[in-house]
Amino acid sequence: MVERSINPQRVNFLAMPIADDILDQFAAALGPKGFTRDAETIAPWLSDWRGIYHGRCAAMLSPKNTAEVSAVVKIAVQHGVGLVPQGGNTSMVGGATPSADGDSLIVSLRRMNQIRVFDADGGSVIAEAGVILETLHNAANGAQMRFPLTLGAKGSATIGGLISTNAGGTQVLRFGTMRKLVLGIEAVLPDGSIYDGLAALKKDNRGYDLTQLIAGAEGTLGIITAANLRLMPAIADHAAAWIGVESPQVALKLLRFFEARSANAIESFEIVPADSLALVLQHISGTRAPLGGNWPWQVLAEYVETAEGRVADEALVALVNNAHAMGLIGDAVIAKNEGEIGAFWRLRDSISEAERASGPAMQHDISVPVEAMPDFMIDAAAAVEATFSGVVASAFGHLGDGNVHFHVRAPQGVDGATWRAGEGKAASRMVYDLVSAAKGSLSAEHGIGQMKRVELLRQSDPARIRALRAIKSALDPQGIMNPGKLVPLASDVDDA
Ligand SMILES: Cc1cc2nc3c(=O)[nH]c(=O)nc-3n(C[C@H](O)[C@H](O)[C@H](O)COP(=O)(O)OP(=O)(O)OC[C@H]3O[C@@H](n4cnc5c(N)ncnc54)[C@H](O)[C@@H]3O)c2cc1C
């Protein structure tokens, strides 16, 4: 065994090649299907989805069951080898990318892709960590049920990754983030022991909630091998409206109006500023504005019925008419069919792509308390634009969750890399400072990973950082689980 001091804030303490005899132990535990040193096979998994981070790895481990994950962790802890749990590798913050030092091994959960138990009557499913979200959607739909969390990466993102990042998406307004849909988990802890918390207990007061501690931990406290997840009744009907409003303040009032009159049937409520819509219309082929007139802010609202025989269109038309009569809506159009609902969502989902086509931008996935968000959107954008000449600051997204994508677009004609490293970085810091001042979060959905670790340190009060480090140190004293992610390192202090 390699002697390691207890050091969760380690600095490259594994920066050494992993010896062949140690790799042989992993190979023996996993067999040929579960172990590879083939560079071509490993290569696609060494860079993050955005292509920002690039790692190195002597081998990729692909256990087929929980016992094999446990065996892998026991070998790793014995020799001080870092392990990077990986699902679909869709992390937006470099969370599943190993370091460039080659001191860690990827543990891919993709072979663990079985649905162990499907309990339609009880409204739950036990799925292994490597089940892809879309596969779970299809399994639920096939049984007239629904797993409501969805996001753009549903064809790749896995249950283990979604739990580890506490993913959000477009249905959070009604169902909450991934944590709310998790009834229990099975995980291999950093010493190789297996925590079986799969039983769905409605009441359980045995102290610390280990399931919820490991959820959102980004693979730093263990490897999730399976989860017991909540299912919902299938949708009977749905409808969508595209609505013009005067301001984010009015949009939030509209949301509250809808909620008070629709018994929790409003499932999505996305806000889109005029400049973002204009970029979509300019850069994304086949798009058109749903409304005439120049509405400074527009809202995409989706209404869902689960009871058979109730018509969502009629209910949404009535809601929109009432809101119009109250002066909350300037203009609105209800989608006439699935094609139009899809066209509304395409406008919303294409904003980032349209922005990329228009030039460089700094992107921030932030949250503040919901009721404070409308003022924040206006005031923070004005402050950033006043400080950095020529930039455009613009926020869009999940207003009802208090979570928007706050993007700062570069002045026309600048060199992207130079701008990002200089003024763009300063603009980002300003955004995060404003978020902190509003008691918000610098990561509403995507997590911390390696991208935001230093900024987390800068923006957090010392009590939070001390607690994070203490938890990490207690459960993973050797720091083998996803090194360099989430928990700020001692060396980060100098960067802060
Ligand atoms: C196009 C696109 C759209 C997206 N939209 C959204 C969105 O709307 N909302 C949102 O919240 N996110 C979104 N994301 C981010 C991403 O989908 C989530 O982070 C997702 O939860 C990651 O799942 P994954 O299986 O790909 O995990 P990976 O990317 O492989 O890993 C993510 C993190 O979880 C850890 N991890 C993975 N599996 C396990 C496991 N079994 N046990 C322990 N730790 C594990 C990894 O170490 C890493 O830290 C989007 C990403 C893309 C590419």
Could you characterize what this model shows?
The strands form 5 sheets. A 5-stranded antiparallel β-sheet has the order 5-6-10-8-9. Strands 1-2-4-3 form a 4-stranded mixed β-sheet. Strands 13-14-12-15 form a 4-stranded antiparallel β-sheet, sandwiched between helices. It has helices at 20-34, 39-42, 66-79, 133-142, 159-164, 172-175, 178-181, 210-214, 248-261, 274-283, 312-325, 338-349, 351-358, 373-387, 416-437, 453-459, 462-475, 492-495; strands at 35-36, 60-61, 82-86, 104-108, 115-119, 124-128, 145-146, 182-188, 194-197, 223-230, 232-233, 237-245, 266-273, 297-305, 331-334, 361-367, 392-398, 403-409. Strand 5 (115-119) and strand 6 form a beta hairpin. With 496 residues, the protein is an alpha+beta fold. Bound molecules: flavin-adenine dinucleotide. The site of flavin-adenine dinucleotide has 37 residues, from strand 3, helix 5 and strand 10.
